[in-house]
TrEMBL record:
Gene Ontology process terms (BP): negative regulation of DNA-templated transcription
InterPro entries, sorted: Bact_HTH_transcr_reg, Chorismate_lyase_/UTRA_dom_sf, Tscrpt_reg_HTH_GntR, UTRA, WH-like_DNA-bd_sf, WH_DNA-bd_sf
Lineage: Bacteria, Pseudomonadati, Pseudomonadota, Alphaproteobacteria, Hyphomicrobiales
GO molecular function, one term: DNA binding
Domain HTH gntR-type: 20-88
Protein keywords: DNA-binding, Transcription, Transcription regulation
UniProt name for this protein: GntR family transcriptional regulator
UniProt superkingdom: Bacteria
Short name of one Pfam family: GntR
Membrane-spanning intervals of the chain: none
Family annotation (PANTHER family): MANNOSYL-D-GLYCERATE TRANSPORT/METABOLISM SYSTEM REPRESSOR MNGR-RELATED, MANNOSYL-D-GLYCERATE TRANSPORT_METABOLISM SYSTEM REPRESSOR MNGR-RELATED
Amino acid sequence: MSDDLATILSLERLQAAGTGPLYVKLRRMLEEAVRTGTLGHGDALPPERDIAEFAAVSRVTVRKAIDELVADGLLVRRHGSGTFVAKPVSKVEQRLSQLTSFTEDMARRGMSSRSEWLHKGIHTPSPDEMMILGLGTDVKVSRLSRLRIADDQPLAIENASVSGEFLPDPSAVTNSLYAELERLQVRPVRAVQRISATNMKEADAQLLGVSVGAAGLSIERISYLGSGRAVEFTRSLYRGDAYDFVAELTIAVT
Ligand code: 16G
């Protein structure tokens, strides 16, 4: 534990932190550590055991204080690696009228983008995939699941399905799906997107570094070739605090 943090979390401070339950005082002290920069954005919190020992409080008290700060979004828990001070999110705006890829969207904003692969494989299509992509029973589907990250900030989880006729080898997609579809001369030219509000479930919240129940945007995109054939069916979950979709509207001409 750094000397500064040790001073902030000291027993004397806790005793001097006014009245109220111990966990509320500890919570205030942790908030102060973040506000004053003693704990920087992205920094790991010392293990709960160490904080409990140092401030001479029970682990239940530490857990309660941290739980509240996680619920408020000041701290984030990452499975297997501990608790961290949340990074302030910079909002990304996406225009709804342009059919662009995640990689292109981020590059246009001067942001770096990368993906963590969650799954890549060839499968027998589900009834939904068969219907939406217009597949026969003999055609396989390529499935690609990724955590999409921009400037080191996780933004979305994307699950894309592409007909095996258009993308026979999903392992060929290393970075951008649309770049690979372009190389195969089957890049979509039109898409229909449906956006709905959702709350994050535990597994998704952990991947995106937000608290369970945080606001999210669930998006389904079906994209098409010039011929009208559907190429891609993608279900994505975007962080509600990090993404704005902007649509330009013009007056209807009757
Ligand atoms: C965007 C698309 C997604 C597409 C991906 C390709 C939305 C909601 N989704 O994220 O459907 O598969 O771009 O990106 O905009 P890539 O070429 O960088 O892999």
